[in-house]
Amino acid sequence: LVLLLNLEKLIRLQRKTSSIRNICILAHVDHGKTTLADCLVASNGIISTRLAGKLRYLDSREDEQIRGITMKSSAISLHYAAGESEYLINLIDSPGHVDFSSEVSTAVRLCDGAIVVVDAVEGVCPQTQAVLRQAWLENIRPVLVINKIDRLIIELKLSPQEAYTHLQKILEQVNAVTGTLFTSKVLEERAVKEVEVQEALSEPSSGELVYDWSAGLEETDDSHLYFSPDQGNVVFASAIDSWGFSIHQFAQIYCQKMGVRSEVLQKTLWGDFYLNAKAKKIMKGAQSKGKKPLFVQLVLDNIWSLYDAVVTRRDKEKVEKIVASLGLTVMARDLRHSDPKVLLSAICSQWLPVSQAVLSMVCEKLPSPSEIGAERVERLMSVGTRRFDSLPEKTQELKQVFLDCTSEETAPVIVFVSKMFAVDSKALPQNRQRPLTQEEITQRRDLARQRHAEKQAASQSAENPESANAGGTPAVTSPTAEEEEKEHFIAFARVYSGVVRRGQRVFVLGPKYDPALSLRTLPDGCSAADPLPSVPHLACCTLEHLYMLMGRELEELEEVPAGNVLGIGGMEEFILKSATISTSPACPPFTPLNFEATPIVRVAIEPKHPSEMPKLVRGMRLLNQADPCAEVLIQETGEHVLVTAGEVHLQRCLDDLRERFAKIGISASKPIIPFRETVIRPPKVDMVNEEMGRQQKVAVIHQAKDEQSKYPEGVHVDSTGLVTLTTPNKMATVGIRAVPLPEEVTRLLEGNSELIRTMEQFSLFAREGKTLEISQKTLEEIQGFKSKLEGLLQGHKWRNAVERIWAFGPRRCGPNILLNSVEGYRRPSVWQCVEREKEKSEAVMLRDFDNSIVSGFQLATLSGPMCEEPLMGVCFSVESWEINGESELGGANAVEATPSSGSGQGRRKGDTTDCYGPFSGQLIAAMKEACRYAFQAKPQRLMAAMYTCEIMATADVLGRVYGVLSKREGRVLNEEMKEGTDMFIIRAVLPVAESFGFADEMRKRTSGLASPQLVFSHWEVISSDPFWVPTTEEEYLHFGEKADSANQALKYMNAVRKRKGLYVEEKIVEHAEKQRTLSKNK
């Protein structure tokens, strides 16, 4: 009944936008988010206050309860009354483990504010910084809860004064992270402004401004950004003991006792103030005079003495005194309980209830949906490379609709779905069991008696097989069972404008939807109910069910006004992972979510019984929809591959597949570890760190001569690494040289793949005679990218290289370059989009088969010669490209000038076919082979994916941590001690290939005192040469005849080759019986 009344209140409050607060709880793993959420849920009577913290109500999955960590974000609506005003709080609890940071992104997008929880002992951890950054990127306002203060008393045994200093340091750490984010934003904005000013003035007169880099910071007010208890945006708490307070509460308590105004107390309770007992005044300078600060004297001393009486000394008399002085009533069974924490919780939950402190801070300090900022709206609406100004006018008008956040009939509906989550059909309200009426009970009783009678009759006539048939009962039950087994998807969404109603027709806009295109195609004033022409990435659907999310429960709703978080049923056919829903086709799709973690761990999956393959395919499709970060692909080899963010995430996905989505036995391969292949400059020292001597160089030259004899006919490799290769029909010859790219260039190319893709698209359109509209901002970014490239590619061998770039690869946007060094061949530049004027004046033609050269390069960079992995950081320079007998081939730009005619008349005119197949195909193959030989002519290396690993450990297990790291080829970057604790933070890098089972081993070896957080960071060249054999005497001494010690790169390379079914050179011992000596034979 309480819940029903509560539900009615919540539905009533949904209409009042100013009373809604959409918040999420963010923190590092194990800092107490779900325990805090439990305390807030208990305040609404949904769970018992005694179970708060133990039940972990919002961790509804079985594996979450077993592991003790949250794996998916779940929402609940709470009611909170403060005096006259009532509030509806939509609370989303999010995971803290780095593998599930994508769930944090989906939660943050739907909220207006965040509660950041920090452990009082561990302080700011890597994920704390990550979640603060995510909140910053989404423009949502955070408040701070410093949790687990009981650990300072019980575990660290700090005095109140030491605890005060420790808490100050934690606040400084959190504010330092916020400050860094703020500074970078201000300086970025200032740089943009300066560029605009200089453009306007045309002559740069403001030269002296360059030196004063902090000018913008001084003018900008940032006081509201930081956490400070006197501003009321910090709560000190211990969620497990269910107490928490803000300074405001103690200011209210003491203002009557001390006769000081509560505003004065609020400003002085935190900071360097003390109470002068004689003068009865609050004075500044507690630290310099060696006095107790007010916070210690009035707040911490009381909490410490309570813990001392209840937990440490168990002093019954003192406890009774405290209870009487606070005016609380504690039940006799709590006083008698053997566990002191029960009594402590009973006292604290009445004296300083944590839910009261946190929820009042949320309602006062965090904005309501109607207070959404213009900057945030523009950022949400500017998708991809488009600026807000470049959007169509009708779309820009919707900005006001966002800002108004009204629930009027005329307002267009705008909803954002951040993720899809799966629920069992039993959990849906329409399938929930309701209490039976008297007639239904009678009916069921009669039915049960009838069945019983039938069963008895059947057992008596068992001899007669025909009459034993049970009259079609299985046929009736099977569809219902199937129906129950079916997974239903619910869209996790928020209404930004208008009222969403059940049965309403709406547009579903995919992430690539372009409002400008649809406004041209669709008639004015059309709605989703009208029959409309098809528009790419736009679908129409009906909203079948609307739900209020109540943790593990769902409550059905008829309509949901603006500003609320809700669940929408029946959208699985229209939405894959996230989408925008609107009644206006002018609405743009929202900016894609910012994911912190990149999926890197791949496994191939197959069913235990091959006949169950269709079930696996369906299960993987459902898993892909249900998990924002997991990716599902079918490789060229036909393997079904699952890509996840880390080991814990992988385990959860496999469990989900087995038990929920596919419901079959599956076997997963060992993780498929990605590598990259690259070339380096010839090393100056050998494997025993001695300078390359003459003897070695001679050996290397002999080796090169031997290798030349290995090359097939038509391939020539000279001593400089230039490969010349002729096509089988002797019609064309290409000369290729491979050069390693500087590391910074590779990193730049990798970071700008989106820009490269845009440039490639522009060139493609230009070739077809069309134009692609690119916003000014993107053009500026491309220009900046080009100038950075020019700055990095210096020196005579890279002279004019940026202008000569032919293509990027693999997939036309990768970190490898094809350079045009062919004398006398000028082709359209890849930088066409930023050099349009220059291009118009001088028309440049493409040579025939230009595309074949590019395709060959793309194929070569997609799978290298070492183990068929993509290349990285390699520049292939085309030194020569001759086509013999050009007249025979019809050399009149027939193929490339009109790509549309490539298959028909273009093929006949410009592409001859002989016994070796079409000439363009021969050229592609020749180009690919030439690139591979050029690659092999240089020192080859493998590149491994690397994790950055952050480990927090106490001093006594440091040695073991280092032991585990060195065993797994890890490299420690730095270690630092956290002030005021005995914790060390170790930062290391670790190859992904060595990371499986790393977290478990680390926990076992350190008895659970150290737990690592792994995040994919970068690619790193493995220094050892996989093809190395000893050549000098020292190397023979060190490494034996055939380099007997394990070559790390060779081990990785052979493992990949074996997995792909390629040839691996290894010795297999066949008859390994032990040789017996003659004396034993007697």
Rounded to the nearest angstrom, the radius of gyration is 35 Å
Structural class: alpha+beta
The percentage helix is 25-40%
Count the DSSP helices.
37
Q: Major sheet: size, sense and barrel closure?
A: 8 strands, antiparallel
Strands across the major sheet, in which order? 14-13-19-10-11-18-15-16
Low-confidence stretches: 202-213, 465-484, 886-910
Strand proportion: 15-25%
Distance between the termini: 93 Å
Average pLDDT figure: 83
Shape: globular
Protein name: Elongation factor-like 1
Organism: Pygocentrus nattereri (Red-bellied piranha)
Keywords: GTP-binding, Hydrolase, Nucleotide-binding, Ribosome biogenesis
GO molecular function, one term: ribosome binding
Using brief descriptors, characterize the structure shown.
1082 residues; 8-stranded antiparallel sheet; 37 helices
Explain this structure.
- With 1082 residues, this protein is an alpha+beta fold.
- It is 39% helix and 20% strand.
- It has 37 helices and 36 strands.
- Helix 5 packs across helix 7.
- The termini are far apart.
- Mean pLDDT is 83; it is low at 202-213, 465-484 and 886-910.
- It comes from Pygocentrus nattereri.
